[in-house]
Specification:
Number of strands of chain A: 8
Strand content of chain B: 5-15%
Helix content of chain B: 55-70%
Largest sheet of chain A: 4 strands, antiparallel
Oligomer: heterodimer
CATH class of the largest domain in chain A: Mainly Alpha
Shape of chain A: elongated
Number of domains of chain A: 3
Strand content of chain A: 5-15%
Largest interface: A-B, 82 and 78 residues
CATH superfamily of the largest domain in chain A: Multidrug efflux transporter AcrB transmembrane domain
Largest sheet of chain B: 5 strands, antiparallel
Number of helices of chain A: 11
Number of helices of chain B: 21
CATH architecture of the largest domain in chain A: Up-down Bundle
Distance between the termini of chain B: 26 Å
Helix content of chain A: 55-70%
Chain lengths: 375, 629
Amino acid sequence: MRFLDNTNIDFISKRKITYLVSGSLILLSLLSLAIRGLELGIDFIGGTEIAIKFEKPIDIAQVRNDLDAIGLGNIEVKTFGGETGLLIRTELQDMDPELFSRVTGSVTNAIKTAFPGIQFTEVGATVNSVTFQFDSTKTAAGVSTKMFELGFQTSRSENNTVVFSVGIADWIEESLRESMPDNPFVIQKEDQVGPKIGEELKQNSVIAVFLALLVILIYLGFRFKFAFALGAVLAVFHDVLITLGLFSMLYGLIPGLNLEISISIVAAFLTLVGYSINDTVIVFDRIRENLKLHKTANLKDNINGGINRTLSRTMVTSATTLFVVIVLLIFGGDVLRGFAFTLFFGILIGTYSSVFVASPFIYEYATRRKKTIQF
Amino acid sequence: MREFRFRLILILAFVALSLYLLFPTYADLQNTKSIEEEVSLYRQTILTANPEIDDAELVSILTLKEDSIRVSDPTIRENREKRVKLGLDLQGGMYLVMEVNTAKLLEKLVKNPDSEFDALFKEAEAESKLSDENLVSILANKIQGQGKRLSRYFGSLRDDDSDIIARLEEQESDAITRAIEIISNRVNQYGVSEPNIQKQGSRRIIVELPGIAKEEEAKRLLQGSALLEFRMVKESDFTIPIMNRIDEILAGNVDSAVADSSSTDSTDVANMTAEQFALEHPFFSVAIINPQSPFADAFVRETDRDKLTIFLNRPEVQKVIPDNVEFLFSAKPANVQEGENIYRLFLVNRQAELTGGVITDAQANIDPQTTEPIVNMQMDSEGAREWARITGANVQKRCAIILDGGVYSAPTIQQKIPNGSSRISGMEDLNEAKLMEIVLKAGALPAPVDIIEERTVGPSLGQDSISQGFNSTFIGFLLVAIFMIFYYKKAGVVADVALFFTIVFIMGILAGFQATLTMPGIAGIILTIGMAVDANVIIYERIREELTTGKTAKAAIESGFAHSYSAIFDSNITTFFTGIILYQFGSGPIQGFALTLMIGIVCTLFSALVITRVIFDMMAARGSKINIG
């Protein structure tokens, strides 16, 4: 079977249309990035994120209401993995000291409910833990085990004391346990990131993307001509910018699709860079071959010829890669959904840009500078 | 056929190598399954025999059973070590990044701080939170900015500023080394399987604890301040009778469950006597005493440690151990026998003679006279006074140096040490002396570390991820394979064969690298499946083109491949570059992704350029029709 066989489309002459398309997409992206910005995950801004799975379906609005009342300020609640899963996020780093007595009081009550009539005293506290003393080592061990089973983070030191963790995550979990006693849950993952790491990560991500572009520029400059290298890098930059723009436009709008920028999204962007450049290089390779073979033909025909001859390949490879990305999008689970989404859109825009941005750029560059490109 | 022989052998060799590398993973999967079955069966028998058994005890007996099965067959262990490991995101566990709190360290090191220093210090601390520069140099700049010399606050008066800065930075990196040692020691004693503790940059430690659910406990394990103690070791005429009593008690009252688990199925006579011995002397069969040695230290195999701990914790055994002493293991293996670590077991006083707070300095050195590695240790005046009394009263006895419950060394006191300046000798090499220095300093200068990143993944999410990843790989492969056959007919089948081998190679190489499979890593494999056929597509399209120009099948294949090389190489090399950058930039899971992506590229190239090619050449040589759809 074949389609797009022996096409003879004059891509270069139609470049003005795609300039308009690309130009408006970039403008839209820049506008959205300036106005709406991006939703950065806790990897970048620091904070706490908990993913939990309940036994029974939950009412997300109810959970939002409940969590508003626990004194941690703005807490985001999203669905995670179907209607029994939740993703709870806060940027807060440290617990408000005023809240502390409320939190420890709640732990005290929980112990008293679990062990009616038990005697104990608070003997110490830090920013995120509280220590209770019990009458014997045995009691302490019993309390520690039982309360851990109930979902508290406990630990033992040598003697008759038990340490309870009372950090932000613990407080959220405890509050949910209290407000929904008939719907138990398990913690699927819990991340806490300090602000310093996020700041470094932000820098490193930008550096990584630009370094990738630079390396590509140098390599292609050697293997092709500078105009080709510049065209390829420009096309990739175009892809990254528009995909970022899409993230900015869509975050929070599609239920079930989490579009916050995390480390794995940055990885997806670098993969997108790799894919897009891969696609562009194959078109360029054919243009280079044409330029070597048909030295007398004009540049326009050579470029058009290169795009047309590789068009079938471009489509087939995009199709097979899209297949697997769609599979990931559907079956890959929540962990990879954002990653797969980035690649899904990235492949579309990457394929588009290698034909409609990178190749016309060479033509534009050569005609404007009145240069002939020869290999 | 002769002209293809070399290439065919090459392909077969790679396939065989991949399968060889993958075999341990497969075997480990099977082993784990059968062990699980055995353990659950065993659980049933215990429960029917003793329905009221304590939960904690049941768990410990079952772990023991599992361990003993795993140890009984060395191939099980070997396969486990060589399997493709799963990342924390797939098997659950904790990932922590810790950083030395330089501010706290400097606060400890500063002498005569005045209010001006405090103000500068606060400023510098605030500034360092927002900058890349380290606190030491920011603070140094600030002090110098006030026209003061650093020696006013640090070091001695004669020191240059640059010397002091260098020394402070050294202290900082020492603190990291110390923190790593303290953490490794504790993690080791806590019994986490396959922990990973590594230094990142100059001030950070990354700790990975697979399968840990108790977050708070793990944090305390990593963050609490270290306890260094000097405790007297009991002499053999005290220890041996106690050990004998324990042995008798255990022999008279051997828990059938534990005895069962230690017996194996083999029936030959040599083993029978060993079993007999184990039955009659359950304690001495796992805690081996050297009768020639003047000391009563028992030697315990690593795999017997848990068992021995359970023995020692039994209430009836606890009764015969005096209240003022306890058994402690050495922190590091004393030696290695038949590939297994052997630990020493000491009986020491519960009461510490001294704690590490009195140590002011420790320095590993080579004794210039004997060229023997030694550690010199200094104490403050109060400590020195105590130390003189202790050493005077205990000459020719051994004093154990214990960090967080692990015995690092038990040197014999040679004479009374009057001024607190002690010399420890008898280390194997300078490395051991350095370790001693680190341990001793852990008492004097705690290394304050902050947890700056913490990620916990529950086991259920990991399970879900594994099955989702597996399903996606399978469906993705199927879709691509069907499409290729549909589009390229017979040549599509060839591409699918190449794709299948590509996946086998990727998995094989991952196993060979001892790489860790993460969820993004699986995504990398899936993505590779989609992109792997690209090289085939390029070649096929080219062959189609060549065929339309009227070339023979053989010539079309020849020039189709030849014309595709530059496109394939240039495109894959640029993608490979981004893979390298991704690997450099990323941490844990992302590196896994980058690695699979890069391995995928290499395997794809091999499959497309060698496997596809040889199949086509063979088809052309046989004169079969080349069908590219």
